[in-house]
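Running this now, will post back.
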Amino acid sequence: MTHLDITKARFNMIEQQIRPWEVLDQKVLDVMENIPREDFVPETNRNLAFADINIPLPHDEVMMEPRVEARMLQALNIQSTDSILEVGTGSSYITALLAKLGKYVVSVDIHTDNTESAKQKLKEHGIANITLETGDASAGWDRHAPYDVIAITGSMPNLPEAFQFSLNHGGRLFCVIGESPIMTATLITRVGEYEWTHEALFETELPSLQNITPTRHFTL
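Update: finished.
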């Protein structure tokens, strides 16, 4: 695509996909306009950078639909002083968005090649307020806890309790809970030492985090 085509496609993504999905937070709209999503999409699918679909990534992962990414960011209400944990670096596009909105991001991915690719992409875009780590965070990642924000970019049948305890008081966590075909994007907020609120945001479907133990279904 030419520069003019990309500019128009990005405008259409925001005006035709994101705004109609009740994303009106100007900070979120601005950051999604300013971070070039096409630079984080695999070259073979670059023409799909602004499409309203999950874009395939290596390791059977996906980039979420732009409107889902936007709703996640809006729900998390990220402040410039927030410390953030991202579970699942993937394409590192969400990593870049989080870094522009918050103070500092720790992003963890189970695949070394994802981490190495993210280092290069984020460096090219001058984004440095990030620590990239490789490891299995499917059951939690408290190495730099507590966090003000946690964004989990893969689904899970149930949320491990460790994630909730890694939140600061007032901290927010986004996750997609359930199993296909029924999954719910959920916002969890820590409101006390042993108290959290849960808000169902919308229905969606995402590949699960790797190494997640599936729910057992019993039949008589």
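The first helix runs from residue 3 to 18. More later if anyone needs it.
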